[in-house]
Write a structure and sequence with these properties.
The protein is an alpha/beta fold. The protein contains 15 helices and 17 strands. The protein starts with a helix and ends with a helix.
Length: 434
């Protein structure tokens, strides 16, 4: 198979993939001689902030001289974005070659009566095999969904297990209560391996404290984070930060979102935890690595007139509203989302945005997308004044981008899929202008 045929196959897998705990991925990896067992991984789970923290850690490790693998999801423009070594996406040929090897083992599994691995299981195995083949020093590994039964949880001895901010998302899979979700995330805690925990409520903390005690996992946790912003513009935040574990007087991250400082606090705590695994990174390296942080699609500013934010759950929308209200100019919102999200509450929360000039809603080109008529009804019920409806997603994106100017800030939110499609459009238009 060539790259296009390989991707068509991989992207079609959800239609016949069946989840079976960790059994399927364990069997597939055994057939490939367990490449994951040779990897040193930092394992990151949580509801929001996983990708940002993974990216920060990857940048610092690269700056420290480590050959660093990074596994994240979803991709925005191209599948290859999910798997990187030292910031470079896996190339097309490696995907084809690795999948050709994996496909032989999948066929053997099916002949033996096992289920076909899911899309994410296959993607995880491609990543493990790629990182092993290229002999990376450290892998920063983001879970897909949950933790306990996530395919990435096949690893047994992570360098550090990391739990980021926990909220309600994927309720139909993880449960309707925050403690149910926390229990799933706690499934990545391993025996005698350190755990880093995001500041949380006392009941969630007690749950993780108990899990760590049972697993004899040293817990790194700082309830209080003191930080001070010295400079903030539409590209960068400069700040100092201090916890009981560390003190940095001057850090800079490439973002407009203040919540990324909270994610940075966890990345810095992971760096402290790595000392117990004989990975020592000095402050100068940390500062330089953090300054290279750039996470696409998360409060991403393009030309000072467009902001792309993949906020796709209620807590993400709340953070978006908090950040966007720092900007005083009139705003155009382009919004769409998936059916399994609490879109009614998300829309009601967007009403708290200041200076909304108009809202553009569209029918996304995905089966799981909310019907545009339903979105219109929800925005109308929330008393938004000017609501413009597009059945065609491409026309909606083109119109939204045409609204962007120095007096009008266009904000594209609600789904990482939508953000990815907008980035494709911007990339295409940029190329056509050359």
């Amino acid at each position: 198979m060539n790259y296009q045929q390989t991707m068509e196959y991989i992207l079609s897998i959800p239609k016949f993939g069946v989840k079976s705990g960790l059994d399927n991925i364990r069997i597939l990896l055994e057939k490939l001689n367990n490449p994951h067992r040779h990897l040193k991984c930092i394992h990151v789970a949580g509801t929001n902030g996983k990708g940002s923290i993974c990216s920060m850690l990857s940048q610092v490790l690269i700056e420290n001289g480590s050959k660093t693998g990074l596994f994240t999801s979803p991709h925005l423009i191209k599948y290859n974005e999910r798997i990187k070594i030292n910031n470079r996406d896996i190339n097309d040929k490696d995907i084809v070659d690795l999948f050709s090897t994996i496909k032989i083992k999948i066929d053997e599994m099916i002949e033996e009566g096992y289920h076909h691995p899911t899309f994410f299981e296959v993607t995880t195995v491609i990543a493990f095999l790629y990182f092993y083949t290229h002999q990376v020093d450290v892998v920063v590994l983001e879970t897909g969904l949950g933790g306990r039964l996530d395919p990435t949880n096949i690893i047994c001895h992570p360098l550090v297990s990391v739990i980021t901010w926990i909220g309600l998302d994927h309720n139909q899979v993880l449960g309707d209560h925050i403690l149910d979700i926390a229990k799933e995330k706690a499934g990545i805690i391993k025996n005698n391996c350190p755990t880093v925990l995001y500041p949380c409520t006392s009941d969630i903390y007690e749950l993780f404290y108990t899990h760590c005690k049972q697993k004899k996992s040293p817990l790194y946790y700082s309830e209080k984070i003191n930080y001070n912003i010295s400079k903030k513009d539409k590209k960068t935040i400069e700040f100092s930060i201090r916890t009981k574990y560390y003190n940095y007087k001057s850090l800079s991250i490439h973002t407009i979102a203040e919540y990324q400082i909270h994610n940075a606090s966890i990345a810095l705590l992971v760096i402290e935890a790595l000392k117990s695994q004989s990975i020592i990174i000095n402050k100068k390296v940390v500062k330089k690595g953090m300054s290279h942080f750039n996470w696409a699609g998360r409060m991403e500013s393009i030309g000072n007139t467009i902001i792309l934010d993949g906020a796709h759950n209620l807590d993400g929308i709340k953070q978006f509203v908090k950040e966007i209200n720092h900007f005083n100019q009139p705003k155009t919102l382009l919004f769409s989302c998936m059916k399994d999200k609490p879109y009614q509450k998300m829309i009601q929360t967007l009403k708290k945005c200041h200076n909304i000039d108009k809202v553009i809603i569209t029918q996304m080109n995905y089966e799981r997308a909310v019907d545009v008529k339903e979105l219109y009804r929800c925005f109308e019920a929330s008393d938004f004044n000017t609501i413009i409806k597009f059945m065609n997603q491409d026309k909606a994106i083109d119109y939204a981008l045409s609204c962007a100017n120095k007096n009008q800030l266009v904000c594209c939110i609600g789904s990482l899929y939508l953000v990815g499609d907008i980035k494709k459009t911007i990339h295409r238009k940029g190329n056509s202008d050359d």
